Amino acid sequence: MTTPLLAVEGLVVEYPVPGGTFRAVDGVGFTVERGGSLAIVGESGCGKSTIARSLVRLLRPTAGRILLDGTDIATLPERRLRPLRRRVQMVFQDPYGSLDPHLTAEETVAEPLRLAGVTSKAERARRAAELIDQVGLPASALHRRPAEFSGGQRQRIGIARALASDPELLVCDEATSALDVSVQAQVLQLLRDLRTERQLAYIVISHNLGVVREISSDVVVMRGGRVVEAGATQAVLAAPTEPYTRALRRAALDPTTMRGRKPRAVVSAIATASAGAAEAAVSPEVAGTPEPAGSSDPAGSPEPATPS
Ligand SMILES: Nc1ncnc2c1ncn2[C@@H]1O[C@H](COP(=O)(O)OP(=O)(O)OP(=O)(O)O)[C@@H](O)[C@H]1O
Question: Where are the compositionally biased (Low complexity) regions (predicted)?
């Protein structure tokens, strides 16, 4: 049996909160094959982003293993982690906030190349131009700053930046949810193309089953920090056993509720389905706790949010 690109085993993440800790992720496991695709879905607050941030080690997990090609990166000290960071990159939800407003697209994409040791400025510029082209932006985009782009274009720049270090796995945290449906479709197509062209694997975190169905061959459904349903996307969506998955599927099948965002109808359907799911409830002192500093750092940020 070949080693999967990524194997997550018994992942536990606890946040410090006044008077103790809050367990946001509680014994989660899944695998992603080389060139594979996995969606992580689940109601708000179930721990999806916490997993994503752990995978790129913006957070240090409390327990469990994150095996990248067999090497456990969950607790690896920064010095040993650094050479592996380039292999897993993250694309963030907010195409408005995740780019440095002062940098041109070329500078944004060239920066990870510089960090990866590409010393020649001309070479960095050449590679940045190639990447900008690969994500479907015109060469004129290279010298423009984020304010001059649309949300979809910014997200493409975010993807180009993530690709700059030639990763094997992209972690996309609601990467298309801020975008209009048609732009969302274009970005999803881009991810699919990259998967084919580069053998790039990705993990997509989404509330949108339409997105999940289109883009991922496998799915993990979470509730209250745990995996409650997992398997091939088609099989899980064809016969969901979890109330959350059933509600999400019902909402996804109703064209009036899906507009590529987190529509109120979907949220309320999910809330109804999840009523009584005590373990999913957020304790009052945790609700509204700010995200860890650095959670909107550019991909490849060398500093974990929770110091390793
Ligand atoms: N820094 C923090 N300190 C304390 N609790 C936190 C912190 N960050 C997140 N949490 C809590 O951990 C749980 C999981 O949060 P996370 O952001 O991973 O959920 P999510 O599934 O990504 O939610 P959403 O879909 O709304 O983005 C939530 O209950 C959240 O309130």
Answer: 277-287
Q: Does 191 reside within a domain?
A: yes
Range of the domain at 256: 6-87+167-280
Q: What is the ipTM of this complex?
A: 0.98
Tally of structural domains, the chain: 1
- What does pTM read for this prediction? 0.80
**CB of 49 closer than 6 angstroms to any ligand 1 atom:** yes
Tell me if 286 CB under 6 Å of ligand 1: yes
Q: What is the CATH number of the domain that holds 210?
A: 3.40.50.300
Domain-embedded: residue 127: no
Q: Whose CA is nearest to atom 9 of ligand 1?
A: 291
Tens-digit pLDDT string for the chain (308 aa): 689 999 999 999 999 999 999 999 999 999 999 999 999 998 889 999 999 999 999 999 999 999 999 999 999 998 999 888 889 999 887 767 788 999 999 999 999 999 888 889 999 999 999 999 988 899 999 999 999 998 888 988 999 999 998 899 999 988 777 677 777 777 788 888 888 888 899 999 987 888 888 889 999 999 999 999 999 999 998 888 888 788 877 766 655 544 444 433 333 333 333 333 322 222 222 222 233 333 333 333 333 334 33
The three-state (H, E, C) secondary structure of the chain, written as one string: CCCCCEEEEEEEEEEEECCEEEEEEEEEEEEECCCCEEEEEECCCCCHHHHHHHHCCCCCCCEEEEEECCEECCCCCHHHHHHHHCCEEEECCCCCCCCCCCCCHHHHHHHHHHHCCCCCHHHHHHHHHHHHHHCCCCHHHHHCCHHHCCHHHHHHHHHHHHHCCCCCEEEEECCCCCCCHHHHHHHHHHHHHHHHHHCCEEEEECCCHHHHHHHCCEEEEEECCEEEEEEEHHHHHHCCCCHHHHHHHHHHHCCCCCCCCCCHHHHHHHHHHHCCCHHHCCCCCCCCCCCCCCCCCCCCCCCCCCCC
